[in-house]
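Convert to structure. Protein one:
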Amino acid sequence: MRTWAKRVPQEAAPTGDRNEAELAATREAAERYATAQANIEKLVAEGEQRAANAERRAAKAMSQFKAPRLAAEEEAAKVLADARRQADEIVSVARAEAEQEQITRSALEGELAAARAEIARLRSEIERARSAEGDNSQDDTP
């Protein structure tokens, strides 16, 4: 019986390593998601800042050049259109990335749920093994 008792921790060790690896993979996925989310927020903020800067430049140009008003209005319109186009592109890219991150997040949440279910299953299996071990040791007692 002593030999068997020494083997149990060795056989249980890979299960613990597997659980730790699954948890580490889950943590890594969560960190990647957080990083991607921060990048998306940065891109959106940058686009909004560019649009705000372009609008300020246009307003300043209009107030300084009243004499050639038509030329200034045309230039401001071009600057605004370009800034809006750039902002739209940035927002479009950010939305696409956000959608992709949402898909990734959903997949990761599914993987996390599966990993948690696997952990629960393994814990239950360990508990059953421990219970069976306890029943066997009671049977050996005279």
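Protein two, convert as well:
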Amino acid sequence: MNLLKLYYLIYFKKIKPFDLSKFILKKIENSLFKNYFINIDYNYIKKQCLYSEKLVLKNKNNLLTGIPTSYKDIFSTKNIDTTAGSRILSNYKTFYNATFLNKLNNLGIINIGKNNMDEFCVGSNTFNFYFGKTDNSTNKNLTAGGSSGGSTYLVSKNLLPFSIGTDTGGSVRQPSLFSNVIGFKPTYGLISRYGVFSYSSSMDTVGIFSKNILNISIVLNSISGFDVKDQTTFNLVKEDYTRYLNKNWFLNKIDYKKLKGLKIGVSKKFFYNIYNFSVRSNMEDVLLNFEFLGAKIIFIYIFFFDFLATIYNIISSSELYSNISKYSNKFLFDKIYFFLNKKNFFNSLSINTKNKFFIGNYLISSNKNKKIFLLSKKMRILILENFKKIFFICDIVALPIISCNIWDSLNFNLNKNLIDKYTCISNITGLPSISIPSKILNFKKFKIFQGFQIIGNYFSEARLIQIVHEYKKNFL
């Protein structure tokens, strides 16, 4: 669904925002049993529609007025309950909105509902034990991906122009691969994290799902910026992320090969760690396509590539322990839950969160174990400095999203290194990355989508959008 087409329809008053949201809600009714949503408030949708219609009548409308979206249920909202996918926080009401939500609400956007997710973003299946398992958009037996698996369904079915989730270790890019959608993870600190329930505070970023790269650039223009309430945001000059679209890489020379001069970094270790041949062949095809557009391929070396998944797990689990342990106070001091003790708090958590919670507790508890955490932090700095040197040689790094194809949703014994090895690179370093769908493997009963991701330098989102736009225009 193109965002500009919807804007023209609303601007010339051919469609009212109320009618548009009513049409989408009717389409959703048949698929509510598939657990894509946790909360839908119909009265709040009406209020938002009335506000957006007022803006249209006063000619104060923007590109995003009256356009419906859905958010992951980890962003704090005043009018709708925020659960973070956990039964500990069921019926939990916040008294403030997240900063980027306030920006979107002022523009007159319509929030249809809050999507399903893994409990506290821990997991990669969106198999929620309390709110139910979300089905894949093509096949119900396969995974929807995680942890932002509920946000991708309506975007993949062309019912919404975009949806918003969070990315900690590939939670935006991995589910976008499984439902044939573009997943965008910006630089750490570009979008404010105020109002986001934190899983790993040093790696959490707000991400965007869409089928069109122009939709992502328009949303990023309105969301990004400095926030006083969040100390990790950067006070930079406001830029337009659509400025490089339909332009050459050098911006001044005219050439039929629009990406001539682009240098792509590829490591040989990317191919050694792939467990499925179809993933490797897809990656080779992608690099050939880039060479056809005029790009050069340079071989690079990444420090501690074999230990990336373990570094990510150590840092994320120890930060999760400090972030989740505060919720036990609800069970200790609330009158309703006074009869419950700490054991009941741990029993109410899912299997994935329990595992991460106790690993984090073990790592932080004693001074001996803290050395492991501090060593992983030092290794993280070395990886970060290595990537700074890599971007002196090349402009982007191209790599696969996961080392295997899509799996069964009930397969809990899957090795985490298969899933997080390639996606956690940009979270450990804080670099921006985009996952792009590239190929569809058709079988008798189902389809398997394949794709790749590109990682750019800090605050090079406009360049990444330019590359994706050119690639999609020529090959997809």
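The first strand starts at residue 37 and ends at 39. The longest helix spans residues 367-393.
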